[in-house]
Amino acid sequence: MDEPTSETDRVRRILDKEAPNYDRQMGFFERILFAGGREWACAQAQGEVLEIAIGTARNLPHYADDVRLTGVELSPEMLAIGRRRAEGLGRDVDLLIGDAQALNFEDESFDTVIITFALCTIPDDRMAASEAYRVLRPGGRLVLLEHVRSPSLAVRSVQRLIDPLSVRFGADHLVREPLDYLADVGFEVADVERLKWGIVERVLAHRPA
Length: 209
Prior knowledge:
Layout: H1 2-34, H2 37-43, E1 48-52, E2 68-73, H3 76-89, E3 94-97, E4 110-116, H4 125-135, E5 136-147, H5 153-170, H6 182-185, E6 188-195, E7 200-206
Parallel strand pairs: 1-2, 1-4, 2-3, 4-5
Antiparallel strand pairs: 5-7, 6-7
Helix pairs in contact: 1-3
């Protein structure tokens, strides 16, 4: 059981180190690859909402005012920036240090779970999806916005070539695909949209009622 813990600690250290520059770097990629993605994801949220790996809370401005939001984040440095963002927006949100692979919430606690650009970094992404399923109420919605393994052979070949370096230095897996396991976890996938050569994926799924 030591291996997942050590990898989680490694990811935490990487995220803490990246935190001061994360917003600037992510802003660049959002302009060229992910434009409109955060707005889309947050528009799907309703009721009691959990955002897993909320990071610096870049999604926060896009949630509706009536959403009751909880966010969990592995990195204390990321979350400190997120708390400052929430204060600046005057937004009431419960921001907590937590591990997506072992959420500290009771079963069936939320109506919506949102994960944006995080399953690529969480060491055990399938476990994170299982935890999302556990804390969702029957009929609850899972909203995913991720960069994933492209269906294009040419693009996928480039992703596979640079993936080892991306994982080693950024804890960023380039060839993961949540659709590989969502159904096995128990989710029913309602809608999938692919953008930008299939690299960007928007997924709506739900826990059966």
